[in-house]
Each structure stands twice: as C-alpha cells, then as structure tokens.
Design goal:
The protein has about 260 residues and is of the alpha/beta class. The chain has 4 helices and 28 strands.
C-alpha cells in the first residue's frame, strides 16, 4: 500500500494492499477500496462507499458525500462503484437517499471532469459522461451510452443502451436505446449507426432497427400504432424486442 504522508486514512477503512492514495486525500471510516485502485490528490472518499478493482480517481473528486436531497435526514445509504472506472477531476457522486438504498455504477466507465451523479442513480458499464454533464436523482443509464458535455438529465429518466446524447442537451424524457438524441429539450434525431457498427451489430440488425426507427419517427401515427406496425412488419430479433419492451415500460414517455 502506498499512502502519501499528507493523506488522512481512517483506521477502520478497508483498503487492499496495493491501493495508492495521493497527497491530501481523505478516506473516511466506512470506505472499502479493492486492489489496483489509485486515488489522486485532494480527493474525499466518504460515506458507505465501496470501490472495485483497478479504478482511478483524479484530483478533487468527492465520492460518497451526502445526497443533495432535502428529504435526506442522515439515513444510512450506500454507493457501490464497480471495477475499472476512471473518475476525472472534481467529479461528484452521491449515495442514495432512503435508508438502505444504493447508488450503483458498473464497470469500465469514464466520468469526465466536473460531471455529477446524484443519489439513487444506476449506471451500467462502458458509459462515457463528458465534462460537466449532470444526472439528477434516480436516473438509469444502460450500457455503452455516451453523454456529451453539459448535458442535463431530469430525475427518474432512463437512457437506453448505446444511445448517444449531444452536448448541452436537456433530457426530460426517456431516451430510446440505439438512438441519437439532441436538443433543448432533447429530441430523437435518428439511429446511432456509428455506435452500432462499433459495437459489432451486423448489417441485418442495423437495417431492422433503422426501419423500426422510421416507423417511430412517423408524425402521422402514434407511438402505440408504430409499435403495432413494427411487430407486424419487421422480423423480431433481440434488438427489436428490447426496443419495444423499453418503450412499453417507459414511465416518463419517450423523447419525441
């Protein structure tokens, strides 16, 4: 273990033997940090926070501080961060609000400088959140999503896998998986073809999704009617089934 002499690490914190702690960083009592993780300078890791293997935290990150929720009255809640995450300068991540609740972050995510993950959020893996993007409480982001810089995401919003959201967008409704989304408020602009190719989707799958998105974007029919046409006219696949189920389960409605 390599702990800088100026760092303050609580004697009850649980750190793996090869964790690196930088200058002036504070690690508080209920923190658990797994192997090969490096905490930079001037960071604060607090609360009931668990950090997986091989993560990197850069200068000034504040991880596990109390949720910014007026309903929070000091309940014991948790923050669980997976393995291989990169948390850049001055990122803030809060635990859940309710007693026993948990904010969850998966594996191999990149949270760029000044981004914020609020209480009770649930993030998958291989996500990129660019500089100063902000998630309100109870946001769900599925795998391989990219959020541009300065994006704001409304509470209880869900963002589907492989969605790409352009910089400075205001997201107030659920974002379809595989979609491109942009604007203020954000609207669907089409299919994330480049993201699908990079993810290894075959031409047939991309073509089916493109046809489904055309039906969903048709102004003359409702979303419910579009779903019925998709089920009737497009061959069912795992991707199409997932897209339909995502829409049907939406509670906030879909970005138009």
């Amino acid at each position: 273990m390599k702990i800088h002499p100026t760092a303050l690490v609580h004697r009850k914190a649980e750190l793996a033997n090869d964790v690196i702690i930088g200058p002036y960083t504070i690690i508080e009592e209920n923190v658990k940090i797994d192997s090969a993780t490096e905490i930079g300078s001037h960071c604060l890791i607090t609360g009931h926070t668990s950090i997986g293997k091989g993560c990197r935290f850069f200068t000034g990150a504040v991880i596990g501080s109390p949720p910014q929720d007026l309903k929070y009255k000091g309940e014991v809640s948790f923050l669980d961060i997976g393995k291989g995450n990169t948390i850049r300068e001055y990122v803030t991540i809060n635990p859940a609000t309710k007693e026993g609740g948990k904010t969850r972050i998966g594996d191999s995510n990149l949270l760029m400088a000044y981004s914020h993950v609020a209480h009770d959020c649930c993030l998958g893996s291989n996500i990129v959140i660019a500089n100063a993007a902000t998630l309100a409480g109870f946001v769900t982001i599925e795998d391989s999503v990219i959020l541009g810089g300065l994006v704001g995401v409304h509470q209880f919003t869900r963002i589907g896998t492989l969605a790409f959201i352009g910089g400075c967008s205001k997201v107030v409704q659920d974002v379809l998986p595989y979609s491109l989304c942009d604007g203020h408020p954000a609207t669907m602009r089409g299919l994330n073809i480049i993201g699908l190719r990079r993810a290894g989707f075959e031409a047939k799958a991309r073509s089916s999704l493109k046809n489904a998105f055309k039906l969903l974007a048709t102004a003359k029919i409702s979303t419910l009617h579009a779903i019925k046409k998709i089920e009737k006219e497009i061959e069912m696949s795992a991707e199409i089934t997932y897209l339909i189920n995502f829409i049907k389960s939406s509670k906030r409605g879909i970005c138009s």
